[in-house]
């Protein structure tokens, strides 16, 4: 059995471009929710103005398919010129501790 993979993706909008970045994400998110293996794909506002995407995928293979898929390609195109730098993506592998529902995402 494969382990789920948790991912964060940090978007740093250029000054004044946050509304456009959010619009691009609002288009992409429902498409990604329909992808095989997507368990969680949700954005959060950070105090410094960054936008954090928190994701959970059934497996690394399905996450890789997502990264190579049309929703990500369209999102990347719609974000051109709106970010201060590349999206910072980090993959995490859960280390479950405690209860099943509280000890891992």
Structure description:
By secondary structure, the chain is α+β, with helices and mostly antiparallel strands. It has a single domain, classed as Alpha-Beta Plaits. It has helices at residues 18-33, 60-67, 70-78; strands at 5-11, 38-45, 51-57, 88-92. A hairpin with a 5-residue loop joins strand 2 and strand 3 (51-57). Helix 1 runs antiparallel to helix 3 (70-78). The chain is globular.
Percentage of β-strand residues: 25-35%
- Count of DSSP strands: 4
SS-based class:
alpha+beta
As a percent range, the share of helical residues equals: 25-40%
Rg is 14 Å
Q: Which ranges are low-confidence, i.e. pLDDT below 50, for 5 or more consecutive residues?
A: none
Quaternary: single chain
- The overall number of domains is 1
Overall pLDDT level = 94
Describe the secondary-structure layout.
Blueprint: E1 5-11, H1 18-33, E2 38-45, E3 51-57, H2 60-67, H3 70-78, E4 88-92
Antiparallel strand pairs: 1-3, 1-4, 2-3
Give a summary of the structure in a few sentences.
With 105 residues, the chain is an alpha+beta fold.
Notable features of this structure?
single chain, 105 residues, alpha+beta, Alpha-Beta Plaits, four-stranded antiparallel beta sheet, 26% strand, globular
